[in-house]
Amino acid sequence: MSEVEFVHLFEVEEDQIIDLMNNEMVGKQLPLLAGGFSAESCRDFLKAKKQLWDKHGFGPWAFLIKGEFAGWGGLQPEHGEADFALVLHPKFWGWGRKIFNEVKDRAFNQMDLSSITILFPPSRLNSKAITRLGFTEDGQVTVDGELFMKFRLTKPQP
C-alpha cells in the first residue's frame, strides 16, 4: 500500500472534511471560504464535486496518508481547463510535492492533458513554490468575485 492513497471524497466522513475546512490555518489559505464550513456547506461541496466527476469524468480526490485523511484536491474543471487544487491539514503540509507529482503523472500520462493550471490568491506570497514546480505565470482570473493569479504547467515533450 502506498503512503498516499487517492479515494473519492464521499468515502471520507463529513466531520473530517468539516474539521479540515474550519481549521484556522487552512482558512487563511482559502479566500473563497468565508463564514465557516457547516454540515450543509459540506453536503453542497460534496454534491458539487460529485457533479464534476459525473459531467467531466474527473474531479478532486480525498487524500489518505498512512490511512489518515490528510486533505483533498487534484484536478477539477475550471474555465475549460484542468486546474490543480490542494487543501491539506497543516499536519500534512510537507506532503504537497509528493501528492502533486502523482496528480501531474495522472494528468499528463493517464488523462493525456497538454497542460494544467493552478489558481493562486494574490494574498499568498509564496508563489515561488509554484514556479519551482515548473509552472509559469499565465494571467489572472476572477472566481466568485475573488482575483487569482493563474499559472500553467505544460506537458513536457518527449
Identify the strand order in the major beta sheet.
1-2-3-4-5-7-6
Uncertain stretches of 5 or more adjacent residues? none
The multimeric state of the shown protein is single chain
How would you characterize the largest beta sheet? 7 strands, mixed
CATH architecture of the domain at 4-113: 3-Layer(aba) Sandwich
Q: Find the CATH topology of the domain at 4-113.
A: Aminopeptidase
List keywords for this structure.
alpha+beta; Aminopeptidase; globular; 158 residues; 33% strand; 5 helices; seven-stranded mixed sheet; single chain; 32% helix
Quick gist of this model?
The protein has 158 residues and is of the alpha+beta class.
Characterization of the model:
With 158 residues, the protein is α+β, with helices and mostly antiparallel strands. It has a domain at 4-113: 3-Layer(aba) Sandwich (Aminopeptidase), CATH 3.40.630.30. Helix content is 32%, strand content 33%. It is built from five helices and seven strands; from the N terminus they run E-H-H-H-E-E-E-H-E-H-E-E. The protein has helices at 14-21, 24-27, 39-56, 96-110, 128-132, and strands at residues 4-7, 60-65, 68-78, 81-88, 115-120, 136-143, 146-154. It has a seven-stranded mixed sheet with strand order 1-2-3-4-5-7-6, sandwiched between helices. Strand 2 and strand 3 form a beta hairpin. The radius of gyration is 15 Å and the shape is globular. The mean pLDDT is 89.
